[in-house]
Amino acid sequence: MKAEDGITAVKLARCIITQEVTGKPLAYMMHLPYNEPAGVFVTLNTYPTLSLRGCIGIIEPVYPFPEALDHAARSACHDPRFMDLGEDELNDIVIDVTVLTRPRPIVVKDKSELLTAIKIGRDGIIIEYRGRKAVFLPQVPVEWKWDVKEYLENLCRKAGVAKDAWKEKECKVLAFQGRLFRETSPGGDVEEVIEC
What we know:
This protein is α+β, with helices and mostly antiparallel strands.
């Protein structure tokens, strides 16, 4: 994906979110030339405090990117952790689009090696353990100033398992990378954020 495709993706996400929230068809919907299958998350943050307002996505690259983006953007308006996004909030949120690589298992001989195998700011992490699963995007530990151990522990908590479940042999840990594109202000310029 080219940087300009990421910038267009954020602008398109705002169009989709506006349409979803207002229920009004837009006279113009921009075209996104990048059509490869890709995982994507759309994150809504309040502005200027940058508090989380919604974040939904598709991890695996199972849909062409425009279709995955459409689904993630619409779903982020209805994140079950929050009230549905209201039309009056459209000018008070900024939108992030994170384009994901395919998740891959992190293979280590001993689980303690995860502490050096995972790089903060580069790796998003998925944990699968006893039928429970949770994911954090690469930017999450940067924003919370976590080290790798805290990153894994908080992900375990998110999955609803013991904080040290990542150490268990049967716990599967996968990593992916993401390219983060973010509005600098509501509906404003879009930049690619380099975390590390």
